Amino acid sequence: MRALIILSWASYALMACHELRIDEQCFPHLLECADSDFDGDGVSNKDDPFPLNDSCTEATETLCDGVDNDCDGAVDETYEEVSSTNQRGVCVGSVKVCVEGAYAEPDQSFIDGYEAEELSCDGEDNDCDGEIDESLDPPSADVQTGICTGTAKVCDGAEGWIEPDYASVDGYTLEAEEHELMV
């Protein structure tokens, strides 16, 4: 008898669950309603964590749209990363930021190693313009006598500033170097 009562109750509950309707609308958790969109937010009930609330469409925020899509009280706290437009030099890997519901380019000054104007001799494209260590003002070379007066150090990328190849200076000869050393 006890098994019959339990079986009857389970059958009634199953039937009642499938028969629950409000003005011929079924509840969102029922299989026959899975493809419906009760709240009209464009997300089917089966994919909508909040099928009766049109402003809550995500279990976890993923959109940059100025809306609290996961109804946790915070707007756009997490969102899909989108690469920033400039992907050169130290800006490689930078992503756009979400500002007032729209993607915007990041403030490059927060990118590690970024320089608004290339200043460092380091083998990096610090100003993200596609050129490495360009337009730098080199310091004077260590040797500033004779024909080497006015020579400048050379940027050697990651090695920094190095002495120039003095043999490439116009008028340089080994005899000139020896004469300079003797004077």
Please provide a written account of the structure.
- This protein is mostly loops and 183 residues long.
- The protein has a domain at 146-182.
- Helices cover 15% and strands 8% of the residues.
- The protein is built from 2 helices and 6 strands, in the order αββββββα.
- It has helices at 2-19, 174-182, and strands at residues 21-22, 25-26, 97-99, 102-104, 154-155, 161-162.
- The strands form 3 sheets. It has a two-stranded antiparallel ribbon with strand order 1-2. Strands 3-4 form a two-stranded antiparallel sheet. A two-stranded antiparallel ribbon has the order 5-6.
- It starts with a helix and ends with a helix.
Topology:
Layout: H1 2-19, E1 21-22, E2 25-26, E3 97-99, E4 102-104, E5 154-155, E6 161-162, H2 174-182
Please outline what is shown here:
By secondary structure, the protein is mostly loops.
